[in-house]
Write a structure and sequence with these properties.
The structure is a homodimer of 768-residue chains. Chain A is mainly alpha-helical and 768 residues long. Chain A is 52% helix and 6% strand. Chains A and B meet through helix 1, helix 2, helix 8, helix 9 and helix 17 of A and helix 1, helix 2, helix 8, helix 9 and helix 17 of B.
Amino acid sequence: MPNSTTEVSVSVPLLSSLRPATNSSSQVAIVGSNVCPIESLDYEIAENDFFKQDWRARSKVQIFQYVFMKWMLCFFIGIIVSLIGFTNNLAVENLAGVKFVITSNMMLAGRFTMGFLVFTVTNLVLTLFASAITAFVAPAAAGSGIPEVKAYLNGVDAPEIFSFRTLLVKIVGNISAVSGSLLIGKAGPMVHTGACVASILGQGGSKRYGLTWRWLRYFNNDRDRRDLVTCGSAAGIAASFRAPVGGVLFALEEMSSWWRSALLWRIFFSTAVVAIVLRALIDVCLSGKCGLFGKGGLIMFDVYSEDSSYHLGDVLSVLLLGVVGGILGSFYNFLLEKVLRAYNFIYEKGVAWKIVLACAISIFTSCLLFGLPFLAPCQPCPVGALEQCPTIGRSGNFKKYQCPPGHYNDLASLIFNTNDDAIKNLFSKNTDFEFHYLSVLVFFVTCFFLSILSYGIVAPAGLFVPVIVTGASYGRFVGMLLGSNSNLNHGLFAVLGAASFLGGSMRMTVSLCVILLELTNNLLLLPMMMLVLLISKTVADAFNANIYNLIMKIKGFPYLFNHVEPYMRQLTVGDVVTGPLQVFNGIEKVETIVHVLKSTNHNGFPVVDGPPHAAAPVLHGLILRAHILTLLKKRVFLSSPVAFDSKALALFKADEFAKKGSGRGDRIEDVELSEEELNMYLDLHPFSNASPYTVLETMSLAKALVLFREVGLRHLLVTPKTSDRPPLVGILTRHDFMPEHILGLRPSLSRSRWKRLRIRLPFLAYID
Amino acid sequence: MPNSTTEVSVSVPLLSSLRPATNSSSQVAIVGSNVCPIESLDYEIAENDFFKQDWRARSKVQIFQYVFMKWMLCFFIGIIVSLIGFTNNLAVENLAGVKFVITSNMMLAGRFTMGFLVFTVTNLVLTLFASAITAFVAPAAAGSGIPEVKAYLNGVDAPEIFSFRTLLVKIVGNISAVSGSLLIGKAGPMVHTGACVASILGQGGSKRYGLTWRWLRYFNNDRDRRDLVTCGSAAGIAASFRAPVGGVLFALEEMSSWWRSALLWRIFFSTAVVAIVLRALIDVCLSGKCGLFGKGGLIMFDVYSEDSSYHLGDVLSVLLLGVVGGILGSFYNFLLEKVLRAYNFIYEKGVAWKIVLACAISIFTSCLLFGLPFLAPCQPCPVGALEQCPTIGRSGNFKKYQCPPGHYNDLASLIFNTNDDAIKNLFSKNTDFEFHYLSVLVFFVTCFFLSILSYGIVAPAGLFVPVIVTGASYGRFVGMLLGSNSNLNHGLFAVLGAASFLGGSMRMTVSLCVILLELTNNLLLLPMMMLVLLISKTVADAFNANIYNLIMKIKGFPYLFNHVEPYMRQLTVGDVVTGPLQVFNGIEKVETIVHVLKSTNHNGFPVVDGPPHAAAPVLHGLILRAHILTLLKKRVFLSSPVAFDSKALALFKADEFAKKGSGRGDRIEDVELSEEELNMYLDLHPFSNASPYTVLETMSLAKALVLFREVGLRHLLVTPKTSDRPPLVGILTRHDFMPEHILGLRPSLSRSRWKRLRIRLPFLAYID
């Protein structure tokens, strides 16, 4: 059935109605430097007669099974993610701790060259290991993983992101890379890990290893997996920052594209489990059984002060902090995007280059971390310090480094330390005179650029901790500059600086606020924190997008934003829908089906009843490619074009139509049929979704996008306005809503004032 | 055009396809005891040619105006709501404080009868005033207002809920009723107040008093008002509990039916403003200028303890607390529903009865509050108490009451006090031996029943504080019973008991958790709090619904839940859509329009182009009653049936089509047209929404409901499956999705197993 394209819109035509005949948008996007096929997910319930019959047959016990298992899965996600999070921290603290202790001991003995060599070689080996397993075993584990999970929750299924291999590499690689003193974080990879765990649990274990359970069969669909993955990502944040409420809000504000209250309670349950398990594990560690993990462990930055005194007068310095933090944050995003594009260019040359780059950055980092403190002047130990000064033999506040006895190197306390300890030092109060302002400045500049260079390497690397450490040093520096003009202590400035830099680069508000409150354990900071986050986000939004959205764009994910471009209001869906359209008859010859499946890569086909079965062509519904493949593999064919009887239908089981795990779908090439079978028929009626969402071709693109996104569709059928035409104009998919696709079809729009309206005013992104 | 109803569904018919000819659902619902018309709200963007032209003409400056004003409105909502909240607290503390001081002084002088009289008469006068202004001036201000606001955000516009009168009565009446020692709260009314303020600001001030501003004209639509009202309700909670993050989460979890990230930031901004303003005002009060408001004021229950030590072993007692709290909470809901239904029955007899009931409850409350402490034995003052014991002349912990010197009455400390002080006493730590367990039990029972009796009176009355105080006494009582079997102190038990009772009756999780954390200012409680809330909510959900949902049901609001009833999957929209359908031609005679508007009460009419303007009837779009009325009032008619030319269109202004405030819409009865005008024509094309959402008649009801709710529609057009029929089968509105309506149309469903499946299993409400 050819696509009918000459209908003139009834309304005043804004644009010429010439339509290109083929879809120029590509289903292929660039992931990293590899060209990979990206699948869309389908959150619509396929309501075909066969499934309806299955639902009717479901007993109360089965409904109970479903609900019970969904809660149990949330419980297990909480348990597993918290255990992984704890192990991560334990491993990093011990690996990096041993390394720092050995190096420090060598330096105490005056063997600086040897110390440098041990430090650099250890880091190099750890980085080499992390980047090698990432590059060769699971390239999808590189980076933070938050953009991938965010895209997944929007309906974009990048290959391999939730495989078991990716999970393993993500955990081991991240421990190794963070222990190797690279300026990268653990939180992003924990989010990805949590999502992985959730997805693997939801798929009912691994079929490859025979680990499946019948009770889990109900979760083999995209809707339930989406819920579980949202749960997993919240548990990931909860486990990395011990911030259960922050985790829930993070999943809500940043990750998810769809939300409902029932999901809120499930996620809250998962993060509650995380919080309780972590509390129990820390009880164990408090008795000193966790090596160098120590007492502080997971409440990283406890800055509670009985009366953190601040008044309305301090609002001005907070405003300043927010504005500058916003500008710095968006500059950070800008630089990071450029660096990532440059890295992608290098990575196209081969895997070896990826590893070479990682090693080069490791060596560069080691040199900076080891060398810079030598430039700092030694400070005399403060009189009456609570801690031993200088600290010897363990990671502490007052590093001796090259200094004479009775002195400490303040820059080394920050830079020659794990990131967590550096943040703890920066956040702590009553340390206003411990650091020289030049040391803090040097530290800030180092972190700023080093973290931008480090993020893009082929290893699991997060952004949260680098941004926090950079922001904290920036905040403390501002606090030092203001000096006695402000009543706030420098630790508070560091916390607010971290908030402003996070707000400027990640652009979250509520979730960052709660995460920082849970981290610092000081609720009295709340109003200041809210203010600084809102200001820095607003300022930064005037320049560029959220860091994760930038990375998603580089990776080429077709993410559907809920922001409607102005020109979409002026276009109708008829203007963008493209052909040629492939439809099936209700009872179709097997040969035709196989031919169509082989010659197209569409994932859904409209089923139309034409003569002689109906007077005029009538749209029956939409059948999914996966379901047709299941039918073909089952080989229950009809010798004549009649409907399936109930005996034939009884041969099918609902489980067989369950959605396969990512990348494990059937392929038409694997189905081999005999000549005889090809001449038989299939009745598609009972297996097609008889309630597909439809829009009239004159519907504006903006409103169709609202429907598509809010309901979470993969296919949206376009029906004609007049009744004298075939019952279907075309099918809209995710790609048809992408600005690139639309502007490609209508180049004139790029030059029109609708395009020009898109320049970024501050706040403009908030319109609808 | 008659409704075509005989089409037989293509799929296996589950139900007979006989359809009643008329819509039996009523657009009238019972509000309180009055029969009032309830309007639906419309969140769809009416994309007609006229508006599109207006959008195209908007300049960047106007877009900036819109965005800037929306943020400014959020700012003003924050400022105004926090000022009202502060005033509320100040007034209540001073009014009730003076009353308690005077009564206590009389009792110190031994004049018990006089004290009783003063106490009772003061309370009676305050209650009488509150109930009289509510009953006569603004009946919509009665109760907590949360159900009304929640229904509004779902799209149900009850009359007068956001009028200026209601706002005034809500504030004054609540201050008066709470000061009158009734066991009611301030938080619910604050939510309603916040929503009122937001709605009034969004309507651009009051036209009646000439207070309007051109910049505010863009907010005259339901979408922007919905956003602002959400903001206002969050600000209300933030102001009553000084819980800015809790307010955001409350709006998200309990109030709103639609959500997007941009809204999150705006709401967060409003509550941040609230937090900062309250902080500043409390700074002022700390210097002692606020009378009896005192130092504690708004951080009601500060129970921070340096190390609130609890371990995994305490989880068992928390489990117990949660389970019993859930059962108690659902029992509370059950009783409250019964009492409200009984009150409604009494209220039907007339306004006088409402006031009599309020006065009776006030006298009963006074008797209980004054009388019960006499039953409690006097306790000797503890040695080394930090406070003066017994307290004389001010509201304090150790009430002397009738006791001899050196003794105090522990029940009086709880019961003969403001609710806020009672909660503070219950939550405080290191008071394990201050209260006798019988006193706490008596207090619990009194609060439980008194709050159920008090809520339904005709005065602004909240539920949060009564539930917290009841739950806190329950928790403390459990803590006393467990005694040395638990390591937790009784103050902690009171906090967890309040959480469990809140969870059992209000069924929120994340928001209650954060509100309680912000109230008690103790983040270390987090994991316990999460656990107890989840358990009590789960247990209570097995018995009945959320208290607000029960109240909404009593009030008859057609609230659309996002829970799909099982039988909705088996019905198609064709099965429930009812006629007769009224359609207009694209160019219609004025007389016909007036006649149709007068004879029906539909709010939207499909516009169909028939011969001779089109070959076959074609659906052009949907025109709203309000827009037709504007057209009629404008009296720009055509002498012959032709389209409007651009000169005629230039006579209309977009502002004229803006949505009027609630209850202020035009009525067809007010439009008077001459005979000549009635014979002229109107071109409806440019004013009809050419992109209405449509579904095929074979779409399942469940999926149509998803579309209806997620996109926020008022009208959903149903198109026929086959092309040989008129272009429209009918229109679905909110009422067509109500279970009562569907079961009324299909009585057989009530008896079918689809209905039976609806029995409440625990967790079952969570299925999608």
